[in-house]
Amino acid sequence: MKISGYTNVLAVVGNPVRHSLSPKLHNFLSEKLGRDYVYTAFEPSSFDGVAQAIKTLGIRGVNVTAPFKYDALASVDVVSENARCSGSVNTIVNEGGTLVGYSTDGEGLYLSMKHAGISTIGKKVMVLGAGGAAKPICVMLKNRGADKVVIKNRTEKRAALLAEDLNRIVNTDIFSVYSGEKSFDLIINTTSVGMGTQECSLDDISLISGAEAVVDIIYYPKKTALLRAAESMGVKILNGIGMLAFQGIIAYEYFTGEKVSEEYYTEALNIIDE
Ligand code: NAP
């Protein structure tokens, strides 16, 4: 990679963010595609002034991660339809001084599931969690043809608010709160339960039996207690590494205006998974 005074600057903005795998992924893509971009990380204590800094310094774009995805939504000049429905922005593109905000988390999970041979069409899905990650994933499930989405969350009121909000925003009635249903085609964990621990995000693992696949968006550990339980029951499993890689690939396409060929998908996944 040759960096010059003309090199386009990209970055991830979050706090903490030094551990992020995004620089590795994006710099790999620029290297492979021969594009003049460099990707680094910024760790400000607040999001104040970040939008102006992007404009003033002519930074081409940034990915935004916790805790700034909501600040980013409020800071951009134009919000994409997907980001509006998802209620957050994780990608900002500087289009000649106008900041455009996108949400690539939901579609990132969709591509990861597609790559793993897991379909969403016509499926009855249980979504565990009602936090920041749950919303873009629910929007994706509606856009990608799920039949019914049942939200189960520790704080039930939060699940009820999310289901109500989603039904209104995307003009549907497929979202509801868990009320004892027993059978699901897909189970997707979007809670932080199991991240770095042995805790299982699903209290009743008998709900797994009969499911086609169980997905956990957590990527550390690579196999959460939920995924290990599903695997032991012979159910297909998928962790969050693919979501992380694909949301980045989609963001890279927004930054560069160029489609990333599928031939690089497996290598990009390996870069993140190392
Ligand atoms: P968040 O907004 O803080 O939401 C956390 C969710 O987890 C809420 O539903 C919360 O329930 C639930 N929860 C937390 N502790 C719990 C506990 N002890 N028992 C039961 N439920 C609990 O977080 P987020 O941004 O949605 O992120 C959630 C996870 O997704 C994190 O592990 C994050 O790293 C991961 N993630 C992965 C990717 C990827 O690319 N793979 C992308 C985004 C996020 P309450 O509402 O009851 O508090």
Polypeptide structure, described:
- By secondary structure, this protein is α/β, with parallel strands linked by helices.
- It folds into 2 domains: 8-103 and 242-273, 3-Layer(aba) Sandwich (Rossmann fold), CATH 3.40.50.10860; 107-239, 3-Layer(aba) Sandwich (Rossmann fold), CATH 3.40.50.720.
- It contains 10 helices and 12 strands.
- Strands 2-1-3-5-6-4 form a 6-stranded mixed β-sheet, with helices on both faces.
- Helix 1 (22-33) links the parallel strand 1 (8-13) and strand 2 (37-42).
- Helix 1 packs across helix 9 (241-256), helix 5 (105-115) packs across helix 6 (134-143) and helix 5 (105-115) packs across helix 9.
- The longest helix is centred in the last third of the chain and has 16 residues, at 241-256.
- The chain is globular, with a radius of gyration of 19 Å.
- The two termini are 21 Å apart.
- The mean pLDDT is 97.
- NADP nicotinamide-adenine-dinucleotide phosphate binds next to helix 9.
Notable traits:
binds NADP nicotinamide-adenine-dinucleotide phosphate, 2 domains, Rossmann fold, alpha/beta, 12 strands, six-stranded parallel sheet, 274 residues, six-stranded mixed sheet
Summarize the helices and strands and which ones pair or pack.
Blueprint: E1 8-13, H1 22-33, E2 37-42, H2 50-57, E3 61-64, H3 69-75, E4 78-79, H4 81-86, E5 91-95, E6 98-102, H5 105-115, E7 124-128, H6 134-143, E8 148-152, H7 156-169, E9 175-177, E10 186-189, E11 213-216, H8 225-232, E12 236-238, H9 241-256, H10 265-273
Parallel strand pairs: 1-2, 1-3, 4-6, 7-8, 7-10, 8-9, 10-11, 11-12
Antiparallel strand pairs: 3-5, 5-6
Bound molecules: NADP nicotinamide-adenine-dinucleotide phosphate (NAP).
